[in-house]
Amino acid sequence: MERVLNDRFRLLSQLGRGGMGSVWLAEDGMLDRQVALKELVRQRDPNHHEEFRRRALREAQALARLRHPAIVQVYDVIMHEGDPWIVLEYIPGRSLAEIIAAEGRVAERIAAQIGLRVAGALNAAHKAGVLHRDVKPHNILLSADDRVHLVDFGIAQLTGTDPMTSAHMMIGTVEYMAPERFSGQPAQPSADLWALGVTLFQALEGYSPFRPDESDEVAATIRAVIDGAVPTPVHAGALAPVLARLLDPSPRTRMTVTELARALRAVLTVRDPIPSRPPIPRQAQAQVPATVAVPDSSARRPVRTAAERAAAILEAESFTDRLALISALPGTPGAADVVQALPAPLVGRALGHLPPAEAADLLHGLTSTALAAILAGTDARTAAGILTDLPAQAAADLIATLTVERAAAILTYVPPPSTATILRASADGRSPTLLAALNASVRDQVLRHH
Asked: Residue spans with biased composition (Low complexity) (predicted)?
């Protein structure tokens, strides 16, 4: 029997199920789009069910704070038969756990690319006061167009709110929990970085470092984490020192998200083979340097022109390699000239993998016409993030180069206050037409700020 929620969301198929709830693919009849609906599983114990209801709302609140290309977007929370259902962006693809199970392990550069995107998502979350607390391969999605998304903030912790669990209760997946959590210390951003380290080890080696025999014995896993018994990685290559610092048992000296992003960018931008360094014994990790040393590629070749740098990007063997080189451009001299020399569709596709602020920085200095050509090759949500990070007048000038349909599609994803500011800055007289082209619910929100 067909299920339709609130006369709007038609359930199509179940995408997954866990202890807390099920995720459904659904059709949004009002906006004519597919979404993911997260259903709360009914618990027999009323107290447990009430806690799960609170967690569901907490997840929606956590996601509502965040805006990053690698974090799934929350659209709404609806109530059905007294329980909340979270309406989420639908990301077709596979989890990293499914990829590891099917392929055994992932290549070094792919792992670095995934790590860089998740690091960006965690950085955005931590800056917004959100701790994920359950980073693991099952909660990292890779879409068909190579996008990476961190999902399932169901047990996230928000600063400035009461904790969801009592002081003696730990929340998370045991084999990804940092050792300090087992001594009763509260979750910190460094614990999310530890979990990402375990995840990257598993992606590179094909097995969990603290559950290598796939045993379900929780006590043995906890002992392995506390003892710091990390197996020597054999496929990590240039990422071996990164893993060593992420899996530092001390949260004070563990690699930070900024250091991680810097190290992964360096690994990805050095195209020549990087000699693997032996993994650092855990007993010597206190002596690990604060940054990961990588070969200085600038010392091997003279400074190149923008055209030569663009040609090097185009010569890269895969989109992942081209993306890595483009990702390193923001903030570098002549970046705009390099972007101008690249095909607009390639840049547009790459923008979807960058944080909005970096994407906006990458496009700084380009003409509105060039910007419009690039944004034509990216999705509306990515373009919306870039618009939001541009000055209002620059965003208005860019909107003026787009068709009404394209502009409205992008503005649908821009926060209503920002949309109102952009429309006020518009000088082409199209503001009433753009407002009319927005769907009713978005238009009403914009008008409150216009």
From this structure: 282-295
Residue 359 · residue 331 · CB < 8 Å = no
User: Is 134 among the catalytic positions?
Assistant: yes
Write out pLDDT tens, residues 143-183: 877 789 998 876 555 554 444 444 444 556 788 988 888 88
Assigned CATH topology for domain 302-447: MgtE N-terminal fold (1.25.60)
- Per residue in 264-315, pLDDT tens? 988 887 654 434 444 444 444 434 344 444 444 334 444 568 788 888 888 8
* 213 burial via Cβ count (<10 Å: 0-12, 13-18, 19+): exposed
Please state, rounded to an integer, the average pLDDT across all residues of the chain: 79
CATH 1.10.510.10 residue ranges for the chain: 93-297
Burial class (CB in 10 A: 0-12, 13-18, 19+), 337: middle
| pLDDT score for 168 | 42
The gap from C-alpha 308 to its chain's centroid, in whole angstroms, comes to 31
- Quickly list DSSP for 71-124: BPPEEEEEEETTEEEEEEE---EEEHHHHHHHHSS--HHHHHHHHHHHHHHHHH
> What are the helix (H) ranges across 273-352?
306-315, 319-327, 335-341, 344-351
With beta carbons less than 8 A apart as the criterion, state whether 119 and 108 touch.
Answer: no
Separation CA 114–CA 149 (nearest Å): 9
Under CATH, which architecture does the 4-89 domain have? Answer: 2-Layer Sandwich (3.30)
d(CA 260, CA 291): 9
**Largest Cα–Cα distance of the chain, in whole Å?**
68
Burial class for 356, CB neighbours closer than 10 Å (0-12, 13-18, 19+): buried
| Homologous superfamily of domain range 93-297 | Transferase(Phosphotransferase) domain 1 (1.10.510.10)
17 forms bridges with which residues in the sheet?
A: 22
For the whole model, what pTM was predicted?
Answer: 0.65
- Residues in a beta bridge with 423: none
What is the C-alpha to C-alpha distance for residues 18 and 95, in angstroms, rounded to an integer?
Answer: 14
Buried b (16+ CB within 10 A) or exposed e, 44-68: eeeeeeeebeebbebbbbbbebbbb
CATH 1.25.60.10 in the chain, residue ranges: 302-447
Distance between start and end Cα atoms, the chain? 44
Determine if residue 38 is labeled as part of a ligand binding site: yes
Length, in residues, of the chain:
450
